[in-house]
Amino acid sequence: MGNRLNISEIKNFGQLRKSGYKPQSIKDELRSNLIRFLQQGTNPFEGIIGYDETVIPDLQTAILSRHDIILLGLRGQAKTKIARLMINLLDEWIPALYETDLNDDPYNPISFHAKEIIATHGDESIIKWIHRNERYTEKLATPDVSIADLIGDIDPIKAASLKLPYSDERVIHFGLIPRSHRGIFVVNELPDLQARIQVALFNILQENDIQIRGFKVRLPLDIQFVFTANPEDYTNRGAIVTPLKDRIDSQILTHYAKTIEHSKNITEQEANLADEQKKNISASEIMKDLVEQVAFEARESEYIDEKSGVSARLTISAYENLISTAERRRIINKESSANLRISDIFGIIPSITGKVELVYEGEQEGSSKVAQILIGKAIRNLFIKYFPNPDTLKKSQSPSPYQQLISWFKKGNHTDILINSSEKDYRNALIKVESLEETVRKLLPDLNKNLLLIMMEFLLYGLSEFSLLSRSRLERGLQFKDMLSSMFTLSQEEEQDDEDSSMFSG
């Protein structure tokens, strides 16, 4: 807090003046506290990941410039979270006149009632202290938001009881914006606000007066405005009217995490896992990477509307479902703990289908099929980070390290990876594949026991994505076998079932 006071000892305006307290405007307050944070090398935006070199510097510059701000970006880019963290830049406590609607500054009262209190009681005017958490107001813009909601309206009952004309300030029931005086006011999804409502914000932003039902009221409101918007909304649902946009001083562009590592950190930070899940379910880094890779594939997919975006909430929900898939298997098998498996990745499909907007081609495929395609591409692209690329090996005509493994399947052998299999059955299904363990150990030495099994399974999935093995759906899992024999033996009915499969088609 810029003014460090013993607030328990200050009860009235006279005591406040004697304390030496000096009021600041909200924008000066944010600016001075940000300067202090920067000088100390501390971060007021703790928990915002991946914006250190882009969004945060722009935001800090805007605050130093005492600007109203609009955060422009696709859904799930932490716009609202950034706005909420701005309260960290407010003084912890500020004084206000007691029993005033607008939290009036005793040094500079703006409402009729506050002015009357100071005029009547002077130094004896009672002071209340407002915590910074109470100085943040957020409104989601929807088409039904009215002028009365944001600015206020005439209260005819109050006018009649006080025998006052409608032009008198005392008959106004103030809306959210005046009640946010000396605080931060956030409007989420600004383009969804009707144009006539946006127009009503003009004077507040620049001239500091408001108009209610044709009556002009001079209120020098002291507010830090923060707006958020999705660029797609400009064409789909509405637009920010040009004069309003012109009055918003700084436009800051947000973006999705640019690296798997940043994306993974966001997911782990935001995922809501039960203590029992944290204790009993082990997640290897490759499984965490695989979830994030699905989101990266979705943002590049021709089946998904890139203008709509793929929210970070997709990977957060997907990771929660991934953990719960392993937990369900652990409970069914009465095991004390469980490790995530590659096959668990199909448990995230419900987290994908509800969080992506499909284009026409995606609608033709179906949301479940698109989710399956994304998982397949994620496996394929992550596979070549650990194992030699089969396509590259073909082109170079180099000896394939997978030849002995593939030969085992060509002899008519197969292995089944069942979704709910116990740890013992899962291990046996992998170990029985001749040369699978040997191949993984050769290519990835020094793996621990659990990670060895996961990478053995991953190798099977990867080879199936590169069409070196067949992966087909069983009633309770997947079967891996030789690609060529699978093509010859697959019946017409099985082929149709494979096409209709939304979860396990290779």
Features:
506 residues; alpha/beta; Rossmann fold; Helicase, Ruva Protein, domain 3; 3 domains; five-stranded parallel beta sheet; three-stranded antiparallel beta sheet; 16 strands; elongated; disordered C terminus
Descriptive report:
This protein has 3 domains: 10-253, 3-Layer(aba) Sandwich (Rossmann fold); 264-383, Helicase, Ruva Protein, domain 3 (Orthogonal Bundle); 392-506, no CATH class. The chain has 26 helices and 16 strands. Strands 4-7-10-1-11 form a 5-stranded parallel beta sheet, with helices on one face. Strands 14-16-15 form a 3-stranded antiparallel beta sheet. A two-stranded antiparallel ribbon has the order 2-3. The longest helix has 21 residues, at 312-332. The radius of gyration is 31 Å and the shape is elongated.
Poorly predicted segments? 490-506
- The gross shape turns out to be elongated
Query: How is the biggest beta sheet arranged?
Result: 5 strands, parallel
Strand order of the largest sheet: 4-7-10-1-11
Short description:
45% of the residues lie in helices and 14% in strands. It contains 26 helices and 16 strands.
SSE order and pairing:
Elements: H1 13-18, H2 26-40, H3 55-64, E1 69-72, H4 79-85, E2 93-97, H5 112-121, E3 127-131, E4 136-140, H6 147-150, E5 152-154, H7 156-162, E6 172-174, H8 176-179, E7 183-188, H9 195-199, H10 202-206, E8 209-212, E9 215-218, E10 223-229, H11 233-236, H12 242-247, E11 250-253, H13 260-270, H14 275-280, E12 281-282, H15 285-300, H16 312-332, E13 338-339, H17 349-353, H18 360-365, H19 367-383, H20 390-396, H21 403-410, E14 414-418, H22 423-431, H23 436-443, H24 449-465, E15 469-474, E16 477-482, H25 483-489, H26 492-500
Parallel strand pairs: 1-10, 1-11, 4-7, 7-10, 12-13
Antiparallel strand pairs: 2-3, 5-6, 8-9, 14-16, 15-16
